[in-house]
Amino acid sequence: MPTDTDHYESSVRERRAETVAEFKSHKAGPLQRVQHALHVTPALVPLIVLLVSIIVFGLLLGSRFFSPFALTLILQQVQIVGIVAAAQSLVILTAGIDLSVGAIMVLSSVVMGQFTFRYGIPAPVAVACGLAVGTACGFVNGWLVSVMRLPPFIVTLGSWQIFLATNYLYSANETIRAQEIEAAAPILQLFGAKFQIGGAVFTVGVVFMIALIVVLGWTLRQTAWGRHVYAVGDDAEAAQLSGVNVKRTLISVYMLSGLICAFAGWALIGRIGSVSPTSGYDANIESITAVVIGGISLFGGRGSIMGSLFGALIVGVFSLGLRLLGADAQWTYFFIGVLIIAAVAVDQWIRKVSA
Amino acid sequence: MSIEQKREPILKGRNLVKRYGKVVALDHCDFDLYPGEILAVIGDNGAGKSTLIKALSGAVIPDEGEVYLEGKQVHFHSPNDARHAGIETVYQTLAMSPALSITDNMFMGRELRKPGFRGKWLRQLDRAGMEKFARDKLNDLGLMTIQNINQAVETLSGGQRQGVAVARAAAFGSKVIILDEPTAALGVKESRRVLELILDVKSRGIPIILISHNMPHVFELADRVHVHRLGQRLCVIDPKNHSMSDAVAFMTGAKEPETEFEAA
Ligand SMILES: Nc1ncnc2c1ncn2[C@@H]1O[C@H](COP(=O)(O)OP(=O)(O)OP(=O)(O)O)[C@@H](O)[C@H]1O
Ligand SMILES: [Mg+2]
């Protein structure tokens, strides 16, 4: 191999005479700088979209929209989706997807209600059971994905049906009415409790959603587990080779996702007052929408959980804003569809930084 | 060499077999690494070199055969097991998470936590400590022109990435360091730095397994050369007694070695 030998000879002659070439990054254009900033802070796009849409609707609608009451109303309307989107974000960060989030949520809420009213179990214990059921559902998903190595889409497509059917069979399609709950087990409606600060109205569920996102965001950034979640989503094989326990990380993510969905189920009781096996059926699509608009890559390993909250809020702002404008509700879906496609296009563009 | 032979190998493989379906990547392969030496492993593409070192480092669990570390049989179930035992590997694919930072990658799977309550109970990472360590190690290597230690690995050039991977192995390896083509993507000067690093590691008394297709590098550094062919160890040669063309002839099957231990 003459070329190798040539290189070798010349490199021996040079040895350490020269310092290693310095690469000063040439002056980046404004577009590249934007691309770089987004690469580092992926939640920036949804944040800007959120702020701009609030301003635009505020200008169009004035104080009908731009008031503490209306803005906190949006928070209340997105609380369930926001909590479920947090669970969905974790799974999507590992390059998975969880179609069963809505089913886990409803099943958990039904367990909380039925355990209290059918078996007379003290409500706090029933709530704990509901949270355990949600976690167990997540474990089943996680085990099938990590140990059996089945694709997450297929696993959760199946478990979605299974959990939902279980929910209907177990509850016998029976709704527990709000008045009954209020009288016998108000703790089930805890997340619906309201308090006011000025004109702003908050619920426990809203506070929980925000606290959850903040805690998860911190955990993902500041702990080894969080780094492992990103590494697994980025390149599972590389993560395994560099010492991450990929199976354990995946199972923990799906279990945590199940637990969060169970909390969403609890919050759902607070929001609608009753326990209904038919509620929250579209939580999976709404949560995926929030995550995608929030700039988390469906290919895994990229994005921040804060983005999903912004994504959920963007949807909330559009729904309320367009409704107040008197527009047909279909316009909301129309714009959400545009935002989803735009978000994916931006994600692709950001990834080009690496090239 | 007779002294070498009486010494117990620090890392030893016997009868290693690994099949991928019909492909036999390792066919009853033996392997010996002696303390303090640089052992080069050479062989054609697909000869099974990477599979061999993966079987030694826990990344692949061999179908048959045994691995011994310091005379004791070991059963590595994951790369982490091998790392805990002091074997550090730079894989051919580098095994890095492109979207994560240099620091994150260097400490993947062995993160440092903050002292006190925040580390113990909140399990918070000691970012400052890890960043300082990573920066020092990259400076030691002298092959880094990296401005920001928190830059994502995917924004590095191929050679810089390889440098980070080598620095990671050199920083943490305590018993054996395995390098699977560590200079493949590097320029001439950067390769030179890696070769110097290898010698530096050797001077710390840590033995190195170096897989390389670059014969001048192999013959410059190696104490012994393991020639791999068709999933087996064909022979081990002493680079002082053989020429590069001999080695290439063995490797490609153009010439048969007289005994397995030509070097002995
Ligand atoms: N994960 C795998 N699945 C199937 N076959 C594999 C796998 N890994 C390796 N092989 C096969 O095993 C054989 C040995 O591969 P290996 O990567 O060990 O070769 P190598 O000597 O490292 O080659 P190179 O010099 O190209 O890196 C090849 O025929 C390869 O196709
Ligand atoms: Mg190889």
TrEMBL record, chain A:
Pfam families: BPD_transp_2. One of its GO terms (molecular function) is transmembrane transporter activity. The chain crosses the membrane at residues 43-62, 69-93, 99-117, 124-144, 197-220, 251-269, 305-325, 332-350. One of its GO terms (cellular component) is plasma membrane. It is found in: Cell membrane. CDD domains: TM_PBP1_transp_AraH_like (cd06579). Keywords: Cell membrane, Membrane, Transmembrane, Transmembrane helix. Its main location: membrane. The keyword Zinc does not apply. InterPro entries: ABC_transp_permease. It is a multi-pass membrane protein. Signal peptide: none annotated. This is Mannose ABC transporter membrane protein /fructose ABC transporter membrane protein /ribose ABC transporter membrane protein. It comes from Limimaricola soesokkakensis. The lineage of its organism: Bacteria, Pseudomonadati, Pseudomonadota, Alphaproteobacteria, Rhodobacterales.
TrEMBL record, chain B:
It comes from the Bacteria. The keyword DNA-binding does not apply. Residues 11-255 form the ABC transporter domain. One of its GO terms (molecular function) is ATP hydrolysis activity. SMART domains: AAA. Keywords: ATP-binding, Hydrolase, Nucleotide-binding. The keyword Transcription regulation does not apply. Its EC number is 3.6.3.17. InterPro entries: AAA+_ATPase, ABC_carbohydrate_import_ATPase, ABC_transporter-like_ATP-bd, P-loop_NTPase. PANTHER family: CARBOHYDRATE TRANSPORT ATP-BINDING PROTEIN MG119-RELATED, SUGAR ABC TRANSPORTER ATP-BINDING PROTEIN. This is Galactose/methyl galactoside import ATP-binding protein MglA. It comes from Limimaricola soesokkakensis. The gene is mglA_1.
